[in-house]
Amino acid sequence: MLALAVEVNYVHWHEINPDTHELTHVFTSHPEAVKIFRAYPHVVLIDFTYKTNTYNMALVEVVGVTPAGSSFLIACVLIPSESEEGYTWLLRKLMDILECTGASPSVFVTDRELGLVRALRTLFPETPHLLCRWHVNRVIESRAFMIHKTVFYKDHVLNNPEIGWWNVIDATCEYDFNKAWSVFSQKWKRLASYISRTWGEHAKKFVLCYTNEYFHLGNTTTSRVESAHSLLKAWLKSAHLTLDTMWSRIHSMLEGQHSKIRKELQDSMSRPRITQRLFSLLQGKVSTKALEIMQDELKRGVALRVGLELGCGCVLRTTHGLPCACTLVDMKNNGSRVHLSDIHSFRRTLEYDNEKAMPKNDNDMLEELVDKARQSDPVYRKVFLEKLRDIFHPENEDILAPAVRENPKGRPRGSTTRNKSGFEHSMRKYGTPSTDASTNIQHMVGDFAAGVAGAPLEKNYTKGLLSTWVKRYGVMEELWPHFDCWIDVGSDGHCGFRVLSHALRGGEEDYIQMRD
């Protein structure tokens, strides 16, 4: 694997166990991905997945965003576990890639993986870190269900327009947030106590009024990385690959990804799509994605009309680097036009060129070192050459394959379907009680149930849930006897594809492939 990476000029690092000489860490980044990352380092999303290699190592995907709105894989990283040490090693390599440009990410988006949270806090203390709102909400919904034990908990606890959780997380200003939290915590004391203990210190990483202060390009969830996981596993086609086979398939996937990105950026520069005078100065100089966002924002502003200044929110400038609705409407009414200076440089950078980012003195320094090596004693020349050989010919090192890790996360052994998360067990599948009700309940709520302090599970709480549900949603009475369970797929705009994935593949995680 390392030899193949060197052959096609990948940026790569690796670590070995000094006692066993087994490979423990691998970082690889495609040379084109390095160029793209140096041009567009603004938003970085990080998540890990399992069942990609025969060694059961965690595969961390680091994903970025282009001006055209596409995702690109910055790096694939194999680490032995999701520890702070592993993530610290990974983040230092990202810093090394960007060091020559002096750039730094504008925001990181991750799940609440504590090792990663701590590593980011240490290495990027000034960079905003957002937690995936989708996962936060799913976990809180799961806890709400376990506490209140009713299929109507969403209506009462979460979606209630006066006392629900969504009023808290979607508050658009700090005053509204504090007010909504005060009302919510008084009404739902036990759930509020859990949220305060578990999520309180992270509130600024997912509550809307705080995330709107960051340049995140609309990325407040890790859905881009989840899509990257699905795409990668579709290319791998196996959960038990050796490192060289896995790397070769990922390389083929990346070649296609980069061709698509180049075409999208070229289209932004060449295709004449602008017909409105308001945007005429931007022809071929900003991404088509930026134009689409501004056109939608203008339509929103025109639709608001009365109370535009209050209804606008004026967050697009901060979160996307583009003029907001009220600004665009004012420009249109005044007959003025949007200038390039009104657009964030990210949206205007339609070419990426790594050479421009490299320090000019690098070649001079290299030549100076080579000259010194030539003039030095043969002993030092040998040391110099050995170090260079280790970098460019890692296959000559005494490196053994990684040790197989026992009991990794992910799918059960021999299964092609991943383990469900706790919130999926407790929220998405409600069946009739088994003869051993307590066992059935434990299966449904997953490991999360163990953390409910002072909330003993009621053995018969599933009784009647199914009949209540089919009545509520208007299912014909003749069909009732044929229902064994119901499944509530994720409500993220892809529910139809999630249903297809459930029906055809036994789980909704392959919905991206259904869509494609």
UniProtKB/TrEMBL annotation:
Give the matching Pfam families: MULE (PF10551)
* Residue stretches making up the MULE transposase domain: 43-137
Region: Disordered; residue ranges are: 404-435
For this protein, the record's CDD domains field holds: OTU
Where does the UniProt annotation place the signal sequence?
none
Name of the molecule in the record: MULE transposase domain-containing protein
Q: Which organism is it from?
A: Saponaria officinalis (Common soapwort)
